[in-house]
Amino acid sequence: MTSALSGATIDAARPAPDPGGRPGRVRRSKPRNTLTPGAGLGLGIAMLWFSLLVLVPLSAIVATAAAGGWENYLNVLQDPQTWNALKLTVTQAALVTLINVVMGTVIAWVLVRDRFPGKAIMNVIIDIPFALPTVVAGLVLLALYGPNSPIGVHWAFTSKSVALALAFVTLPFVVRAVQPVLEELEADVEEAAASLGANRWTIFRRILLPSLVPAITAGAALSFARAISEYGSLVLLSGNRPNETEVASVRMLSFIENGSYASAAAIASVMLAVALFVIVVLDIVQRRVSRRG
Cα 171–174–178 angle (5° rounding)? Predict the structure, then answer.
């Protein structure tokens, strides 16, 4: 009797086939809202704060750029001086980001895996670009690479000075993103792979890289976003020469000083679009590499 009832219960629970002979589909239950009243209040406060600090200002930039009309927008972007400033900013920021991906990972590896005299001091010095005002950084770089350079390297007021300043202010991003991940990785897995005959490249590609890619891409995204928005160190070091060493942030300031806020907002909207594009591309690369690993 119990078996018959159990069988009937199971048959009743099964979806009935449709008239065409195809098996019925199981309806998926919709996920329920698990937010408690306290969590809902916290979410509302967080979204309000995020909107005030990020969404509203970004919307204001887009609205200001659109206020001048498409004609003014295109005229600003087609201006040779503006276009050269945008091109210099994006290319130098991309170049510095690639350098930071390599050198930042190497520095993080040395700080985590190696022991040497002065390691603690080096670990502190890495954070100096974070704490140092960018204008002071430009003054330091100008004293070292300017016309009276004590080492004989005269890069000030050239396009090389742009890359130099960006590399200085963005150095810690990849290092500090990769370093904690390396500290959490266990060496036992690498030793086991080596005992099974895997060479160093295979260990790095199949074991270490999938774990490091999210941190590397996060650091690269922060480095690129910081580089395209740099202003303080470049004011002193690059010389702001139009069509040669002028970057997008300086070009925007010149528009603001002339009262052309719509033109400045047009440049800002382009830089915002470039930053979002790079972040999306890095996220796609991160997912693919992690999946392959």
Answer: 140
Task: Return the residue matching tokens 């994006």.
Answer: 90
Inform me whether the pLDDT recorded for 5 exceeds 90: no
CB-hemisphere CA count at 13 Å for 106?
7
Which tokens hold the place of 176?
């500090």
H-state helical runs in the chain: 2-13, 37-50, 56-67, 69-78, 80-113, 119-125, 128-131, 134-145, 159-184, 187-195, 200-203, 209-228, 232-237, 248-257, 261-292
pLDDT band, residue 2 (cuts 50/70/90): very low
Given pLDDT bands bounded at 50, 70 and 90, which one contains residue 173? very high
Length of the chain: 293
Q: Are 255 and 264 in contact (CB under 8 A)?
A: yes
CB 206 within 8 A of CB 137: no
The span from the CA of 269 to the CA of 58, in Å, is: 9
DSSP letter at 247 equals -
For 201-223, write each residue's pLDDT tens digit. 887 778 788 888 889 999 999 99
Tell me the DSSP string of 196-245.
TT--HHHHIIIIIHHHHHHHHHHHHHHHHHHHHT--HHHHHHT---TTTT
Question: Cα separations (Å) of 137 from 117, 128, 134, 142, 170?
Answer: 27, 10, 5, 8, 12
Task: Supply 290's token pair.
Answer: 């992690």
Instruction: Summarize pLDDT for 45-94 with one digit per residue, the tens.
Output: 888 998 888 888 888 888 888 877 788 888 888 899 999 999 999 999 99
Cβ proximity of 145 and 153 under 8 Å: yes
Neighbours of 291 (CB within 10 A): 8
* pTM assigned to the model: 0.77
Q: Share the mean pLDDT of the chain.
A: 83
Could you tell me if 102 and 287 are in contact, meaning their C-beta atoms sit under 8 angstroms apart?
Answer: no
User: How far is the first Cα of the chain from the last one, in angstroms, to the nearest whole number?
Assistant: 54
